[in-house]
Write a structure and sequence with these properties.
Distance between the termini: 34 Å
Helix content: 55-70%
Number of strands: 0
Number of helices: 11
Order of helices and strands: HHHHHHHHHHH
Strand content: under 5%
Amino acid sequence: MTSQPSLARDLRDRTADDHRQAEHGPFQRRMAGARITRDEYRRWLEQMRLIHAAVEAAAPALAAVGSGNAMAAVGSGKAMAAGGSGTAMATVARAAEGKTARIRNDIAALGGTPEAAAPLPATRAFVERIARTASADPTALVGAIYVLEGSTNGNRFIAPRLADRLGLGPDGCAYLLPYGEDQPRHWAAFKVALDGIDASGAPREAIVRLARETFDAIRLMGEQLLEPAPAANGPEPMTGIGRDPASPTGQTRGT
């Protein structure tokens, strides 16, 4: 009998196309090359604040699964293994903490008002998806946290280029550099926690599915940032995360 791969490796391998699609999105390419303006960077941060705020608000539901309180949180049949897996899940949930405060500081440093921005359609759809998941299947939140935490790998290389191009101080890049020089160590520890989660079958599929949707939502949000503002009384832009999870040949995703 072939053993299943570790959760960290499974997520990496099964979301590789989605990750690549996201990295090659038009906004992401411009950001990686430090070819965005201060206004575009601020507006991106405003959308990321909404995304992180939703995930941070949902993270206690994941931690409750890990602490053995899942029966109260989601009803019978939803709890996963306790013990080591529970500790690992709580560690993953903690990784979601603190990002929103950093983004708020960055937005303020750029002259913006953190709570002023309205969500773009892709952001709104994803925030709603996270809220539903926290209520119905909090274990799946691991997939979203994996994508957001994994972005720190690339952000530590993007941050110095953006700071130089846009004239940013430490406050303007606090979100991109949450761990400073310790980022590789934090990522290694996060992967260890992922691999400590006992997820197989339907729970693992739900984690992978939400990771893919997270890549897709961030890519779509970037595309919508570059769209011209709709004319007054014009048609509403498309909503949704961009791929029908029931369709094996649906639109691919990415970050």
